[in-house]
């Protein structure tokens, strides 16, 4: 049994393609929405490029005083920890993302410590997301009921116009 499996279920803050319930459940079928939340002092960035899956920039959280990143707080069975790490590219060489612990704030004002992922070696100039990636993020954000101003911010993100490739 792995250390993760012994630890029990974990909370995961997603802010990119895993906002979409169908997408996260592809790799983590146990995922259950707890609430939406925000990470203050960060902005959504696209500082890694997915060449094979999304064909464009993928989400990251970069420090930015006064900004916030909205996301979903999922409760996931410990047995699916490795599957999530694998989906996030943590097990690749070099890794795409790294696992971190973050504090997020719920709409009720509660502070929650949870797992999230950030780009391991960010390109600070960034990449434009593909239309498919952007739409997956927006679909999740709308379904979760994110604040209108944040959805408008997501809608305003330019995309790279690439339509080839399939999402995983």
The total beta strand count reads: 5
By CATH, the superfamily comes out as Gamma-glutamyl cyclotransferase-like
CATH first level = Alpha Beta
Gross morphology = globular
Q: What is the end-to-end distance?
A: 28 Å
Overall average pLDDT: 93
Computed over alpha carbons, the radius of gyration is: 15 Å
Strand order of the largest sheet: 1-3-2
Q: Strand pairing plus helix content: what structural class?
A: alpha+beta
Q: Let me know the largest β-sheet.
A: 3 strands, antiparallel
Reading the helices and strands in chain order gives HEHEEHEEHH
Number of helices: 5
Q: What fold name stands as the CATH topology?
A: Hypothetical upf0131 protein ytfp
State the share of residues found in helices, binned by percent.
10-25%
Approximate strand percentage: 35-45%
CATH architecture: Roll
Regions with little confidence, pLDDT below 50 for 5+ residues: none
Quaternary organisation of the protein chains = single chain
How many structural domains? 1
Features:
alpha+beta, 168 residues, 5 helices, two-stranded antiparallel sheet, Hypothetical upf0131 protein ytfp, 3-stranded antiparallel sheet
List the helices and strands and how they pair.
Elements: H1 3-7, E1 10-14, H2 21-27, E2 32-50, E3 56-76, H3 81-87, E4 97-105, E5 111-119, H4 131-144, H5 148-155
Antiparallel strand pairs: 1-3, 2-3, 4-5
